[in-house]
């Protein structure tokens, strides 16, 4: 936590971030702001909700700090980047990116929010080093809905392989050395992603 502490302008969100991470790493059977707050000894989830929705901190800088930490501890010449997505089942329509869509979490089409993740994997271990939220066209084509949800105007529709290419590029540009990239057929059959990897001389 000391590595990411400077990314928070105030001590309160820094402490909440620590509580949040410890809760996520706990063996709680169900993890949401209420259960994580109770695990931390808080009476309400207000502090954690503030951290996630209103507090000012640099999430992308924290992502980069995490990536650097992972590489320092797991670096290996045979490292592989693994791309995959996961979905979180949601109720309602207000959560950014939520719509009825296929999610492997449920194994069927459900109301969900989907994100694409990039994992650094070596014989010594593996860890997620990047993420991109999948924002469907039903959102990006609705300017008012995006504004109401706080989505920046710079966010445009991108297919999941394009999100994967973006994350892979970020990792390689940061000096992460890998031998190849793995993903299921959604990624492996995409000609644009394959071309980007070939341009980088990656299998």
Task: Give me the secondary-structure topology.
Blueprint: H1 11-25, H2 33-40, H3 46-53, H4 59-74, E1 80-89, E2 99-103, E3 108-122, E4 125-133, H5 137-140, H6 143-149, H7 160-173, E5 180-183, H8 185-188, H9 191-199
Parallel strand pairs: 1-5
Antiparallel strand pairs: 1-3, 2-3, 3-4
Helix pairs in contact: 1-2, 1-3, 7-9
List keywords for this structure.
about 200 residues; alpha+beta; five-stranded mixed β-sheet; globular; 5 strands
Walkthrough of the structure:
The chain is an alpha+beta fold. The chain has 2 domains: 1-57, no CATH class; 58-199, no CATH class. Helix content is 42%, strand content 21%. It contains 9 helices and 5 strands; from the N terminus they run H-H-H-H-E-E-E-E-H-H-H-E-H-H. It has helices spanning 11-25, 33-40, 46-53, 59-74, 137-140, 143-149, 160-173, 185-188, 191-199; strands at residues 80-89, 99-103, 108-122, 125-133, 180-183. Strands 1, 2, 3, 4 and 5 form a 5-stranded mixed β-sheet that branches. A hairpin with a 4-residue loop joins strand 2 (99-103) and strand 3 (108-122). Helix 7 runs parallel beside helix 9 (191-199). The chain is globular, with a radius of gyration of 18 Å. It starts with 10 loop residues before the first helix and ends with a helix. The mean pLDDT is 94.
Q: Rg from C-alpha positions? A: 18 Å
How much strand? Answer: 15-25%
Structural class: alpha+beta
Output the number of helix runs.
Answer: 9
Order of helices and strands: HHHHEEEEHHHEHH
The count of DSSP E runs of length 2 or more, i.e. the number of strands, is 5
Stretches where pLDDT is under 50 for at least 5 consecutive residues are: none
Q: Round the mean pLDDT to the nearest integer and report it.
A: 94
Count of spatially separate domains = 2
Q: Major sheet: size, sense and barrel closure?
A: 5 strands, mixed
